[in-house]
Amino acid sequence: MSGFRDLNHPTAPDESYLDQMAHQTRIRAEAAADWDSDFAGAPETSRTGIAAGLDAAQSELTDLLHTIHTLAETAFVEFESVAAIASVLDKHGIDVETGLYGVETTLRATTGSGQGRTIAILAEYDALPEIGHACGHNIIATAGVGAFLALHALYEKDPEAVPGTVVLLGTPAEEGHSGKEVMARAGAFDGLDAAIMVHGYGYDCADQVWLGRRLLTVTYSGIAAHASAQPFMGRNALDAANLFYQGLGLLRQQMPPISRLHAVITDGGTRPSIITEAATVQCYVRSKFPETLKELSDRVEDAAQGAALMTGTGVDVAWDEHPPSLPVRANSALTRRWAEHEQARGRSPLPRGVLDESIAASTDFGNVSYRIPGIHPLIKTADAEVALHTREFAEAAKTPAAESAASDAAYGLACTALDFLVDDDLAAEVAEEFARDGGAIDVENYFA
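Above: the chain's sequence. Below: its structure in token form.
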């Protein structure tokens, strides 16, 4: 037995794959061409005005970033975070509405002429339970507020410079609850022509894969019996849960490589001497395209029902306790404008395909992007090896690098929004590309 490792502790995961991914990313990044948009966008004087507006608001934006980070409020209870944002806007004479769309912690403000096109800048501010802003939503909120303030200052100085409407939408409960879909079903995105936001990350990346995601809860019902005296009189719900869990592992061999399945048995019985009467499995199902997510969902449900058939148990299959999220469909015309503006800030956003797809996560912005054109770029906030949803990323979200990221992101969002309002040719291409990609779909009933 002396040849065994110390079984009191887990083995350390090997980082060779991560090292190779980073190496390949560097190679692809070096080969990536500079961004070049076919559209003029807003005039240079307006971009200069946006930069000046951000400089003037830098102190209060930095305070807001740290305030939201400290509050670390989770889904649907972000009351103080919303109040902090509203307070900043109020100081600039901006009217703010809260508690809209059936959600108490939403926020909405507008600026601009009220004529022409309308674009929304989205701001998230919910944190993760236990580990706080480990997804950097305090940076997202600050960037969104900063972009909105810069555009409002530009409009106040020269109303003709903002020939349209800019909406700041505070969108709570992204983490696990798909708050944007809740808002969308209540009309939050009706009447908007486009929506944009940004997310902190370990790289500057103009467009990266985000997977669609669904939550499945499977509850097996069996018959309790004495596990020693009369096991044959029982029907074991834990056996069904175990078979389903193993079935997911086998299914992974026959699904697209970018799809993901991960599950946990949340209830598996109480005593080993009793045949388990009830067991519950929760499973995340993710995939790169809406169509493959739907097909994979069907196969997972088949596996859940098959486990019940094999064990003689009953089964209840419940999808989407919270609304599902779709993959992000980024608009390349808007993406190129964003990337050019970030280059002006000294950053080098990577195009899609440079970062490995296998590190993809999910976001409810995908649901927005299948209703109206949008972008969801990434901005470098932490070192490349620092992953989202870790305590290390939560620490990175309050550093000077996070403050710089929020400022640069605010500039990129503001300039991209103004490009869309000013440049008719750009706006036409944004709409035409959206139509070519399939246009709007019925997100709410997609999986019905």
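The mean pLDDT is 95.
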